[in-house]
Amino acid sequence: MNYVQFGRTGVNISPLVLGCMMFGGRTSAEDSYTIIDRAIDAGINILDTANVYNAGESEVVVGDALKRNGKRNSVLVATKVNGRMSDDPNALGNSRLHIIEQCEASLRRLRIDHIDLYQFHRPSRHIAIDESLRAMDDLIRSGKVRYIGTSNFGSWQVVESLWAAKELGLNRFVSDQSPYNMADRRIEREHLPMCRTYGMAQIPWSPLAGGGLTGKYVRAEAQQQATGTRFGDETDPGKLRRFSGGVLDIVEAIRPIADAKGCTVSQLSLAWVMNQPGVTAPLVGPRTLEQLEDNLGALEVELGDEVDSALDSVVPPGEHVAEFYEASFAPNLHRW
Q1: Is residue 119, in this structure, part of any structural domain at all?
Q2: Which whole-number Å values give the CA distances from 231 to 57, 84, 122, 199, 241, in the listed order?
Q3: What global pTM score does this model have?
Q4: Known catalytic membership, residue 325
Q5: Which of the following is catalytic: 33, 53, 118, 180?
Q6: SS3 label, residue 84
Q7: pLDDT tens, N- to C-terminus, the chain (336 residues)
Q8: Is residue 131 part of a domain?
Q9: Domain holding 69: CATH number?
Q10: Are β-strands 175-177 and 115-120 bridged in parallel, bridged antiparallel, or unpaired?
């Protein structure tokens, strides 16, 4: 495992981050323990969850897994705050009240004494960033949090937060999570350059476009195959926008390259994200051990110029054929 620098912190992390969204939900606790153990044995040393994943059950399962295997000191634990956790009118957002309350709740569920990376899951436009930053700074100074990061922030929101931290002498964000995959390359325009300019680690989520770039969908049967998956949920139009003919165009363009390299389409797609300038380590969210093994195989894939050429002909740099980037940011700018 070739470890990479986590922004400017001096910390080394694995080139893949294990996302734990499925754990305690679609993936049973026992299967989750197996996946976590295998990931750690393979060299992955950072686990990412959130308080809202499966109503807190993901954090519970992660905490139990680390108690069972005794590997807490071998990994970084990352979690997030922002989402609604109850019907209480204050049980959401990036207010001091919610941040402090949910940090304590996450520590209890995870059964640990500190969170290595505590992230805002979404921006809260109606709350001044200095109010939120002061709460995060207090958590760091109290020893309950080591580092802080953002997720799904716009570039201007990240830069505003860095300015506020400098002006007020507060701990600054060290990392960001944004959607990035072959089907939606829009963070190449300014978000990735912004992270590189300010020394922030970038942990892309959904590098496989929610499963669209795994190669399991075939054009003639795509709609039928999507039934019962995250793309088949008609109650969530956001997810439906992420599955398009353009995604299948990408798969058809890169499948021959994957075949020639002796890897899967998903491994090629994941390796491409891993090797983009400004990317620290993409986040993978396996539901099964088989999916994790496939993800780990991406570490062995060597890319060539033919991948970039094939992709650029279908999705030009900075462009998209599926909605990930805007679907993440735009709704949150007007939620309040």
Answers
A1: yes
A2: 23, 24, 22, 35, 9
A3: 0.92
A4: no
A5: 53
A6: coil
A7: 899 999 999 999 999 999 999 999 999 999 999 999 999 999 999 999 999 999 999 999 999 999 999 999 999 999 999 999 999 999 999 999 999 999 999 999 999 999 999 999 999 989 999 999 999 999 999 999 999 999 999 999 999 999 999 999 999 999 999 999 999 999 999 999 999 999 999 999 999 999 999 998 877 555 554 555 555 555 555 666 677 789 999 999 999 999 999 999 999 999 999 999 999 999 999 999 999 999 999 999 999 899 999 999 999 999 999 988 864 554 444 333
A8: yes
A9: 3.20.20.100
A10: unpaired
